[in-house]
Design brief:
The complex is a heterodimer of chains A (243) and B (867). Chain A has eight helices and ten strands. Chain A is an alpha/beta fold. Chain B is an alpha+beta fold and 867 residues long. Among the domains of chain B are: 201 residues, no CATH class; 218 residues, no CATH class; 186 residues, no CATH class. In chain B, helix 1 crosses helix 9. Classes of the chains: A alpha/beta (243), B alpha+beta (867).
Chain lengths: 243, 867
């Protein structure tokens, strides 16, 4: 594991919404690096800019100023087509609301990124992922026939299938009960430890954050804490301190 | 609530626009139809008003049969004219003749193509509605005047010689004048040649006879006064009217004839409106489903079911009003386009200005609004069933309709019974069967629901997914976009079905008509090759058909190399049964075919129910042969006697000698008599068609060139055709009509395209979240577009396939049960139907343009955030 190499880099990021007097800075000159093979959790109260940061890092939104670099490519210089291609090939996504296509079965949903890219399936990798997330017997089922936890595990497999440079997870456990929530977070942890996957997760759940290696705390568009992810209690204390 | 409706409308502009178009096009065609026919009527009323302006009284002959038979049993002659002139108060009187004729240049080129061409006897100045703009009205027998529009269009000039052919040999005339009609360049679009009365009579084929007498009153005498005096002086067989009455009478007659055109066009308007109704129903159903939360909130805040219902109905009403109003305006623009369309297909109708009657406005708006509101009614009723809890929870389904109470069941049963009886009494036959099937289907559904305790039984939802997935195979090679399109197209089978059905209506009619047309062609082909044994067919060459002089047949016989000629004439009579015991009651106007018995059987093969070729040969002066259909309708037997009142007013007793099988060409009509009888007792001087057979050993090409030379020089109104050329000609006419129908049906197809587009816009709106996710994980804009295009393609093809099935099955049923008697051949135009399917696919792709573009422009973040 070569933890030293930086895979995602943000420099002096600003994101302003609105204009004139009503203008709000969701991010105000934020700089941060994410090394490969690490699991980072971003926390912060509502309006702290944590979601905005993730959107900018993942190339879903464009900063007002500053730069984002993913796997050596500067996103701010890419047009829509190149950005789409970068998301397709280098980035994995896990959403709070699972976001599986209801007309496809679990297997097709997992393979969706490869289908979109028109790439061949690495069958061994697929099998390994299916074993890891534990949905082998559910592969031919459609999302409507799966539980929330199962759906999110399919979504995790989908995020990993294209071996992305980085996986962004937006409140991955937000819609799950505590048992399923623990399963999914374990999976992410597992992906980092065993597959050397880089994961960046936004959450407001201190318990979820405790699965990460590193905890970033945002408030008013700035980083107010950057350190080892400790226990859930410590994370909660930090949150309270920001208030 | 009213404010809410307006706001909602403003917020859903694209949808409102697309849904509005559904109603706009149908209403536009409807309004355009009314405006066009009113305009034509108005133009003719103006024409007739101008013609009869200076005629205090006009005298015409009463016709034995319906006015259209063109016969004139009680001739108006110079003697009649003299009697009229002797009536006190008559200042002047003159006889007139108007008759159809063929105008040609000296090189044999026809003048005037689409509109009719007429010969008109020039009248004294006081009666003449035409005035010379160049030269002078004809004053010598070899002079003619031509209307300004025709002169302009065909580049005619004073001193030029033209050939005119009517009921006799052609004659040549020199243009002495170019005339205008009142202030317009032509008489309602027709080409008119003014000739001296004697020349016009020659063209009419009745020397010494007039078809009208124009009378001017002495000063101080009122037209009505004069009319009664003239009436008293003439036999009752002549009709005396004032000029104003005659103008009104002619206008009314024309209006009746144009009624057909109006009905023809309105059928297509109603088809378009029906398709529009499908789309409005579908759109409202989808939006109600999408607004469940909003309705739940309103209910939670205390809105009553009635208020919810009214708010949805009000939206329909608003849409109906706006759509119909725009449609009416579009109709004003469409009317001239329809006029041009008809010109393109060979019907030149006059049009001066645009006539917009109050009726047009009321009917167009009324029908448009009522259809829109009715189509939105069912979805509105569904909206009232949204429970208030829908405001709080996600994904609340609208509960099914509650089970009917015992009382409601009884009411429904009675209503069905009344409906069934009403349809049997008012329409009868097929309508009752259709109603019965619908009622039984509803009954079956209700039974299932009752058995399941109110649960909605699964409907038609197995066919559509299967069909959609099968059709979807054609895009499955396109990978994930094709796969998703295939699944998405059948995600809501009911929605897809209604969307596709809108296309099915138009394409089903196209398929139906094209199969019938192909059958007609095949039938004519087969019948001609089976029945016709001659070499040439001589007919009037004008597009609208017409008769040929009876003198052609003898002239043909004298050409070297002609073996045999047989002339066939068509006439009319009123058929009655003799007052004998056991005879059926008949009293109807009927067409009759007149043949030359000896030569006819040699050139035309007839199939018999009763009788043989010998039967025809022995027709004589009192024999007739009935068609199988006519005989069946009136229970005629061989040996039965019929009393026929001929077009010229004679009574003839005919004995049925034989019965011929139904034949597809329709040469032998209800009754067939000998041509000799038709000439003597029916006054039928002209023929419909001549058949020619070459003599044994004659050189066909030489004989034909001899025949063609005769026709060119003396009878330019006629031309010769081989059987193959004749069939081709008939087929060409069928194709022309077919094309016109296709063009008019294209409007309905256009409406259904809007429907597909609308459904797609609404569906992609529902799937915003999915689209956002797909974009986030790397689907490109063009992949999104492709996915939606394919979905639309599949929907279009579902509509196309259903249309094909419905159309072909319908046409096969009609052929088997309605047309089988006439030896009708079924023929499936595979090429045309394939083109139709391809068109359906293209229609789908076209409909997807806007929705696909919209979906691909979605902002990823916004789409992901939408809930």
């Amino acid at each position: 594991m070569e933890g030293s190499q930086t895979i995602v880099q943000a420099h002096d990021l600003t994101r302003r919404y609105g204009e004139g007097e009503a203008a709000v800075d969701a991010l105000a000159g934020l700089t941060v690096d994410f090394p490969t093979g690490r699991f980072a959790a971003i926390m912060g109260p509502s309006g702290s800019g944590k979601s905005t940061l993730m959107h900018l890092l993942a190339g879903l939104d464009r900063p007002t100023s500053g730069t984002v670099t993913v796997a050596g490519v500067q996103l701010t210089e890419l047009d829509d087509r190149a950005l789409t291609q970068l998301r397709r090939d280098r980035i994995g996504f896990i959403f709070q609301t699972f976001n599986l296509l209801p007309v496809l079965n679990a297997e097709e949903n997992i393979l969706l990124p490869l289908s979109i890219a028109g790439r061949d399936v690495d069958r061994a990798w697929f099998d390994q992922l299916v074993e890891t997330v534990g949905i082998r017997d559910r592969l031919s089922h459609r999302p409507a026939e799966l539980s929330g936890g199962q759906q999110q595990r399919v979504a995790v497999a989908r995020a990993l299938i294209s071996r992305p440079a980085v996986v962004f997870a937006d409140e991955p456990s937000g819609n799950l009960d505590s048992k399923s929530s623990g399963d999914v977070l374990e999976l992410l942890r597992h992906a980092v430890d065993d597959f050397a996957q880089t994961v960046v997760m936004v959450t407001h759940d201190a318990h979820a954050a405790s699965f990460a290696d590193r905890l970033l705390m945002l408030a008013d568009g700035r980083i107010v804490h950057d350190g080892e992810a400790a226990s859930a209690e410590q994370a909660l204390d930090l949150m309270k301190a920001i208030g | 609530m009213g404010k809410l409706v307006l706001r909602g409308f403003a917020q859903r502009k694209v949808r409102a626009l697309l849904t509005g178009i559904a109603i706009v096009l149908g209403v536009a065609l409807m309004a355009g139809t009314y405006i066009l026919t009113d305009t034509i009527n108005g133009a003719f009323a103006e024409v007739f008003g101008a013609v009869y302006k200076n005629r205090a009284v006009v005298i015409t002959a009463k016709e034995t049969l319906g006015h259209e038979s063109g016969s004139q049993p009680y001739p108006i002659t110079e003697a009649t004219l003299a009697r009229v002139r002797a009536v006190p108060g008559v200042e002047a009187a003159s006889g007139g003749v108007v008759t159809g004729a063929t105008l040609l240049t000296t090189t044999g080129k026809r003048i005037s193509s689409a509109a009719p061409s007429l010969v008109d006897a020039v009248q004294p100045a006081r009666f003449e509605a035409f005035t010379a703009v160049q030269g002078h009205l004809p004053s010598h027998a070899d002079e003619m005047a031509i209307d300004q529009a025709t002169a302009k269009h065909h580049d005619l000039h004073l001193g030029q010689r033209l050939v005119i052919a009517g009921a006799a040999r052609a004659r040549r005339y020199t243009i002495s004048g170019i005339v205008k009609f009142g202030s317009s360049e032509s008489l309602g679009g027709a080409s008119v040649a003014l000739l001296l009365p004697a020349e016009a009579q020659y063209m009419w084929g009745k020397p010494g006879e007039y078809d009208i007498i124009n009378v001017a009153a002495s000063p101080g005498i009122f037209p009505t006064q004069l009319a009664s005096r003239v009436r008293a002086a003439l036999p009752a067989t002549l009709i005396v009217r004032t000029g104003a009455e005659e103008a009104a009478n002619q206008t009314a007659e024309l209006e009746e004839k144009l009624g057909f055109l109006r009905t023809f066009l309105l059928v297509f308007a109603y088809v378009a409106l029906l398709v529009g109704a499908f789309i409005i129903f579908n759109t409202f159903s989808i939006t109600v489903a999408q607004r469940v939360r909003e309705f739940g909130l309103l209910r939670a805040l205390g809105a009553s079911r009635g208020q919810i219902m009214r708010s949805v109905v009000a939206e329909g009403l608003l849409l109906g009003i706006a759509g119909s109003a725009v449609g009416l305006l579009a109709g004003i623009g469409l009317a001239p386009a329809l006029d041009r369309l008809f010109k393109l297909f060979g019907a030149d109708l006059p049009d001066n200005g645009t006539v917009l009657e109050a009726r047009t406005v009321i009917v167009s708006l009324g029908v448009g609004i009522v259809i829109t509101v009715l189509a939105g009614l069912l979805p509105a009723m569904r909206a009232t069933r949204v429970p208030p809890t829908a405001a709080m929870r996600e994904g609340v389904q609208i509960p099914p309709r509650p089970l009917p109470t015992r009382r409601a069941l009884v009411i429904r049963f009675v209503a069905y019974l009344v409906l069934l009886l009403a349809s049997q009494i008012l329409v009868g036959g097929g309508a009752t069967i259709v109603v019965l099937i619908v009622i039984m289907a509803r009954g079956a559904r209700l039974t299932v629901r009752l058995r399941r305790g109110g649960e909605r039984p699964p409907r038609h939802y197995r066919v559509i997914p299967a069909l959609g997935r099968t059709i979807g195979l054609i895009v499955s090679w396109r990978g994930i976009t094709g796969r998703l399109a295939r699944e998405n197209s059948v995600r809501q089978p009911g929605r897809t079905l209604v969307t596709a059905l809108a296309l099915t209506v138009g394409l089903g009619l196209v398929a139906f008509i094209s199969v019938l047309a192909a059958g007609t062609k095949a039938t004519i082909d087969q019948a001609v090759s089976r029945s016709f044994a001659g070499n040439l067919i001589i007919q009037n060459s004008s597009a609208g058909g017409g008769e040929i002089p009876g003198t052609i047949a003898p002239a043909l016989r004298s050409i070297h190399g002609v073996g045999a000629v047989t002339a066939i004439a068509f006439t009319k009579g009123r058929v009655r049964a003799l007052d004998e015991p056991g005879t059926p009651v008949i009293d109807e106007d009927s067409p009759l075919t007149a043949i030359e018995p000896q030569s006819f059987t040699k050139m035309y093969k007839v199939e018999w129910e009763h009788g043989s070729a010998a039967t025809l040969a022995s027709l004589g002066r009192n024999g007739t042969v009935a068609s199988e259909k006519f005989a069946r309708a009136h229970h005629l037997r061989v040996g039965q006697r019929l009393l026929v009142l001929s077009a010229s007013g004679h009574h003839v007793t005919l004995t049925v000698r034989g019965i011929v099988s139904e034949e597809a060409i329709g040469l032998l009509s209800n009754l067939t008599i000998s041509r000799a009888l038709a000439r003597s007792a029916f006054g039928q001087r002209e023929d419909g068609v001549d058949f020619v057979a070459y003599g044994a050993g004659a050189n066909g090409a030489e004989v034909r060139s001899g025949i063609d030379a005769l026709l060119r020089n003396e009878f330019p109104q006629a031309h010769s055709q081989t059987a193959a050329q004749y069939t081709q000609d008939v087929n060409k006419k069928t194709d022309k009509l077919l094309l016109l129908v296709y063009v008019l049906l294209a409007l309905s197809v256009l409406v259904s395209l809007v429907g597909i587009a609308n459904t797609l816009v609404l569906s992609t709106y529902e799937r915003t979240h999915e689209l956002g996710m797909m974009r986030a994980i790397g689907a490109s804009r063009s992949q999104i577009r492709q996915m939606i295009r394919y979905e639309s393609l599949i929907t279009g093809l579902i509509g196309g396939v259903l249309g094909l099935v419905v159309g072909i099955v319908g046409a096969v049923l009609v052929t088997k049960f309605e047309l089988s008697g006439a030896g009708y051949v079924l023929s499936i135009p595979v090429g045309t139907l394939f083109v139709m399917l391809v068109a359906a696919a293209f229609a789908g792709l076209l409909a997807a343009l806007l929705p696909a573009w919209r979906a691909s422009r979605l902002e990823v973040l916004g789409a992901l955030a939408s809930e």
